Amino acid sequence: MGEDSRCWGNQSVRLSGKKILMTAAGQGMGRASALACAAEGAQVIATDRDAALLDGLSDAGIETAQLDVTDPQAIKEIARKVGPLDGLFNCAGIVHHGTILDLSDDAWQGSLDVNVTSALRLTRACLPGMLERAEETGTASILNMASMASSIKGFVNRAAYGATKAAVIGLTKAVAADFVKQGLRCNALCPGTVDTPSLRGRIKAAPDPVQAEKDFVARQPMGRLATVDDITPMVIYLLADESRFVTGQALLVDGGVTI
Ligand code: NAD
User: Which of 160, 192, 205, 206 could join 96 via S-S bond, C-beta 3.0 to 4.6 A?
Assistant: First the structure.
């Protein structure tokens, strides 16, 4: 562990000295996490499929790069370009709405590609460098974006989403088990319903948007949606040395859904 990062009681240096790559950082929780980690002193490389969404992040000292996580070659290139990392946040994910009867093979494959295979490929590409960093500093951390809709809890119309997010948790545990002795940690983040641009899109696309929003809120016992700022403290924690004894976990920030 580096000297700076050992001072984790000091809020301003929680991620000092850490180089962290993030996917889907153009909006929603990815963008908020990039900003929050940079504010905690990390060197953040923020990527997204849509480069225009990354505008403005450089004002916060964040490096940006276009990356479609379904492009295996682009993943290899960015891993080579960024070099050894202390942190990797696989945040990219898409929601397919529907039951298994509404799920075409193509839609299933698309959900697998973005939600699971991307995390596998990025982890595989970045892992050698992260193990080097773990050997030097004592720790490196991978964070995978799962959801409470996964192996944790079933929701209606989330067949592909729930199954692929469950696979993310399985992948997380496998990586954690394989590399625990080398100082590499791997955890999954499982948020509740978070107010982000894609959630707003799902509400807008519903036959009755007012009722759809009410339904999303109703599944949150706290009576409100999460904001991205409810989630970023857990992102920082899991990427920081504070969580150095935490690995292989699916950590819920769900506002009480699973009480
Ligand atoms: P969002 O869905 O609003 O934004 C997602 C971002 O991902 C966009 O910037 C988009 O351009 C990018 N993206 C989509 N496909 C991509 C690809 N192939 N390659 C690279 N980038 C791509 O943001 P969000 O709602 O915060 O979701 C982020 C993650 O959190 C997803 O994995 C999602 O499944 C998960 N999640 C969301 C909620 C929620 O309620 N919003 C709850 C639990 C988990």
Answer: 160
For the segment 168-187, the average pLDDT, to the nearest whole number, is 98
Q: Residue 139's domain spans which residues?
A: 3-191+228-253
Whether the model clears a pTM of 0.85, i.e. scores above it, the answer is yes
* 207 and 171 within one domain: no
Q: Based on the domain organization, do 133 and 245 belong to the same domain?
A: yes
User: pLDDT for 99-146, tens place per residue?
Assistant: 999 999 999 999 999 999 999 999 999 999 999 999 999 999 999 999
Contact 72, 120 (CB under 8 A): no
Average pLDDT for residues 25-44, to the nearest whole number? Answer: 98
Catalytic one among 8, 89, 161, 179?
A: 161
Q: How far is the CA of 138 from the centre of ligand 1 (A)?
A: 31
Catalytic, 161? Answer yes
Residue 259 lies in a domain: no
**Closest ligand 1 atom, residue 95 Cα:** 34
Number of neighbours of residue 16 by Cβ within 10 angstroms: 18
Atom of ligand 1 nearest to the CA of 146: 44
Q: Are residues 97 and 148 in contact, defined by beta-carbon separation less than 8 angstroms?
A: no
Ligand 1 pocket test target in 29, 117, 122, 238 with most atoms within 8 Å of CB: 29
CB burial readout 107-130, b (16+ within 10 A) else e: bbebbbbbbbbbbbbbbebbbebb
Sequence-ordered list of residues with C-beta below 8 angstroms from that of 153, at least 6 positions apart, any chain: 257, 258
